[in-house]
Amino acid sequence: MAKTKTTFFCQNCGAQYAKWVGQCSACKEWNTVVEEVVQKPEKSSWKTIASPKKRMAKPLRVHEISSDKEIRLNTFDLEFNRVLGGGLVPGALVLLGGEPGVGKSTLLLQIALKLPYRTLYVSGEESQKQIKMRADRIHPNSDTCYILTETKTQNIFQQIEATEPDIVVIDSIQTLHSDYIESAAGSISQIRECTAELIKFAKETNTPVILIGHITKDGSIAGPKILEHMVDTVLQFEGDRNYVYRILRSLKNRFGSTAELGIYEMQGGGLRQVNNPSEILISKNDEGLSGTAIASTVEGMRPLMIEIQALVSTAVYGTPQRSTTGYNAKRLNMLLAVLEKRAGFKLGAKDVFLNITGGISVDDPAIDLAVIAAILSSNEDIAIAKGVCFAAEIGLAGEIRPVQRIDQRISEAEKLGFTTIYVSKNNKIGLKNPKIAIELVSRIEDVVSGLFE
Ligand code: TYD
Ligand code: MG
């Protein structure tokens, strides 16, 4: 047997050192460098235990490679398909990250249960009974989904040989361990080795594998950064646990666009796909409350109408408070300064609270105008007329700037029954005869006189 080899890894970023150091020079974290055993007998195929025969790839010219045009496995979940770029590509490795409790296991179990293909759901986190309880809530009977609770990759591969699944789900990569590596499950070298074994399996058999990955406290996927390089697709499941909406984003996709977005609603019986997100994000109040304004935003490729609420009140303490939920606080300060300096509103001594409803966060600059409208509406205590929405950015000079995809934004507003939309004068609008009235504005004063006078 070869001599045991050890290396030091930073558990935070995955940097590798020949000897122990107190501070990782790559990520500057203290006390994260840990010794791990990286003794590796000769690297063998995932199938060694079952069949020792080795396959070898041959180089081919591009036109010789058979492409079997667009074979993608339908996951029977419109939102998941959309984010993947049209379905699962055979042999792809997909990594799904997200905070604890956001619903990663629920999402993948739900998809596994609905699939008409043979699916193997491997869990290292829950017992078969616990998964059964969850499954009963989501989708009572499924004939094709097999549940395995196992953490050793060699055993998993043996079960895969026996079951021959069309899709494999692993919950989660941090719980797996391989016999070829001696360090504990969840350590950098284990994660790397287990992922490498799964990639070999996926590519050799053309079976898609979906991995669940934990994320660290700063929001990146736990384990070495190279994990993200190794897999084909990285998805992120996000959402505030106190709200029911969840957003599935693609951070990397070798087989599709990363601009797509999937939206779900967490319910008693699992996650529901939300096909028309605008309707749920706008609260249905008819009384005309002051301080709310609707913005037409674009998240990824999807237009989305969101509601912005502002509360402006006289500050009780010396320093006025500015607080935001779902919106960048610095941007709010900038908009308040613009209102003060360019439009003459004295907001310097007022508390300003801003909230984007539904627990989602938005960084599309096109919601600036709606933010300003909500603030002014609360400040003046005059409600904005029903049916009015906004889509424009505000510049430092107080000018109203054009935004991209304006046609898409206007169409979405029109589709949802809005009657007026405020956009920048400089936006080129390509729509023919829209039913919605388009107010072209260039300065904040134009908006104020249109709304409140
Ligand atoms: P889970 O999938 O276990 O999260 P993760 O795997 O990302 O850690 O989701 C757990 C949460 O989902 C839990 O707080 C309860 C909620 N939930 C529902 O609201 N309805 C359901 O049908 C299920 C299965 C879970
Ligand atoms: Mg889980």
From TrEMBL:
It comes from Pricia antarctica. GO terms for biological process: recombinational repair. CDD domains: RadA_SMS_N. SMART domains: AAA. Keywords: ATP-binding, DNA damage, DNA repair, DNA-binding, Hydrolase, Metal-binding, Nucleotide-binding, Stress response, Zinc, Zinc-finger. HAMAP family: RadA_bact. GO terms for cellular component: cytosol. A motif (RadA KNRFG motif) lies at residues 252-256. This is DNA repair protein RadA. Residues 69-215 form the RecA family profile domain. The lineage of its organism: Bacteria, Pseudomonadati, Bacteroidota, Flavobacteriia, Flavobacteriales. Plays a role in repairing double-strand DNA breaks, probably involving stabilizing or processing branched DNA or blocked replication forks. One of its GO terms (molecular function) is hydrolase activity. The keyword RNA-binding does not apply. InterPro entries: AAA+_ATPase, DNA_repair_RadA, P-loop_NTPase, RecA_ATP-bd, Ribosomal_Su5_D2-typ_SF, Ribsml_uS5_D2-typ_fold_subgr, Rubredoxin_2. Residues 351-453 are annotated as: Lon-protease-like. The middle region has homology to RecA with ATPase motifs including the RadA KNRFG motif, while the C-terminus is homologous to Lon protease.
